[in-house]
Structure formats: structure tokens, C-alpha cells
């Protein structure tokens, strides 16, 4: 039998989940800019005072929703990258790029919502900046590995290359979300080809 503390925790978890689901519904229907906390609270069916205990504003609520997607995307960045050859590196990079775009496209509504929010919310811009840096740091680590193992050109600045490669991938994802006719297979092949050509030794 649960004690009072456990019951209270369960209720808090359920209230938080209810607000998140209500937030998704309102955001997806109205977009970020037109949505308000008042509408989300009404959809959730909770008290105003209660809602603000969990989320100070709609920006904080959207960040919570974004985090659920990012966990899956971060797992892609964390995949082991220890290629022993240029060809092995190509295969792993191609897989990562496709997986990254697949996650984004499968969550099309949320990604479009993020793009809208980045343009109007300083909190979301700051959050996305941290997201970008997280990916860039992982890419830089991978680049340093292949440079240290003489698979890639050592004179190139790993941080600069990582920053460039991440933003190419992000731009391509936004493009895919705007135009469903974009060929992912063909474009990923081209992107990886030029990336490999510039970074990896012959």
C-alpha cells in the first residue's frame, strides 16, 4: 500500500503529464505564438495556480516537450564511433545522418513547432543553442578520434569542422520538413561524400 508521500508524487507526476499532453494538443493546433498558458490550462483541466507550479510559462512547457524528442536524438550522437578505415567511417556517418533525419521527420509537427518558437522565444533560442552545442561536441570528439588515428587530416580544426557539419545537417533537416519531395537518400549520400572528401585522407 502506498503512503501519503508516494500518493502525492503520483498525483504530481500525473498532473505534469496532463499538462504536457494538453500543451502538445494546443501547440499542434494553434502553433507556438498563438497558444497561451490559459488555453493549455483549460485543455488540461487543472487549476491556474497548480499549472504554474510545474511550468512558469508556455516556453518552459515546450522545452519539456522538446526534451522527450531530444533524448532519442542524443542517443544517435552517442553511438560508438571507432572506425578503423575511411570506408568504415563513411558507413557509420551515413547511418547517423539518416537516423538523425529520420527522428526529425517522424516528429515533424514538433520540429516545425520548434522552428517557429526559435523565431519568437528567447528561452527556446537558448535551449536550441544548447542542443546544437551538445551535438557539435559529440561530432568534434568523433573527428578528433579519426584525426588521432590518421584517418582524417590532422591540420583541420576539429571544432570548426564539427560546427560546419552539424549546421549542414540541421539545415538539411529543416529543408526536409518544409519539402516532403526532397530525396533523403540522394542528398545524404552527397552530403557525406563531400564531408568525407574534405576531412578524410585518401
UniProtKB/TrEMBL annotation:
Which InterPro entries does UniProt cross-reference here?
A: DNA-bd_HTH_TetR-type_CS, EthR_C, Homeodomain-like_sf, HTH-type_Tx_Regulator, HTH_TetR, Tet_transcr_reg_TetR-rel_C_sf
The organism's place on the tree of life at top rank:
Bacteria
Q: Which residues form the signal peptide?
A: none
* UniProt feature coiled coil, ranges: none
Could you tell me which residue ranges the HTH tetR-type domain spans?
13-73
Identify the keywords attached in UniProt to this record, alphabetized.
DNA-binding, Repressor
- Molecular functions (GO terms): DNA binding
* Residue ranges for the DNA-binding region feature of this UniProt entry: 36-55
Name of protein? TetR/AcrR family transcriptional regulator
Amino acid at each position: 500500500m502506498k503512503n501519503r508521500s508516494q500518493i502525492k508524487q503520483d498525483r504530481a507526476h500525473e498532473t505534469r503529464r496532463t499538462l504536457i499532453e494538453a500543451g502538445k494538443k494546443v501547440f499542434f493546433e494553434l502553433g507556438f505564438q498563438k497558444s497561451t498558458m490559459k488555453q493549455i490550462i483549460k485543455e488540461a483541466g487543472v487549476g491556474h495556480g497548480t499549472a504554474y507550479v510545474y511550468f512558469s510559462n508556455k516556453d518552459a512547457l515546450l522545452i519539456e516537450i522538446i526534451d522527450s524528442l531530444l533524448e532519442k536524438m542524443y542517443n544517435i550522437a552517442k553511438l560508438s564511433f571507432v572506425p578503423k578505415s575511411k570506408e568504415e567511417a563513411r558507413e557509420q556517418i551515413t547511418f547517423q545522418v539518416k537516423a538523425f533525419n529520420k527522428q526529425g521527420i517522424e516528429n515533424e509537427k514538433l520540429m516545425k513547432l520548434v522552428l517557429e518558437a526559435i523565431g519568437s522565444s528567447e528561452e527556446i533560442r537558448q535551449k536550441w543553442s544548447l542542443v546544437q552545442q551538445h551535438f557539435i561536441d559529440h561530432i568534434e570528439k568523433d573527428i578528433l578520434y579519426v584525426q588521432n588515428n590518421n584517418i582524417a587530416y590532422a591540420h583541420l580544426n576539429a571544432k570548426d569542422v564539427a560546427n560546419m557539419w552539424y549546421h549542414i545537417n540541421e539545415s538539411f533537416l529543416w529543408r526536409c520538413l518544409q519539402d516532403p519531395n526532397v530525396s533523403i537518400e540522394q542528398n545524404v549520400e552527397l552530403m557525406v561524400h563531400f564531408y568525407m572528401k574534405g576531412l578524410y585522407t585518401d
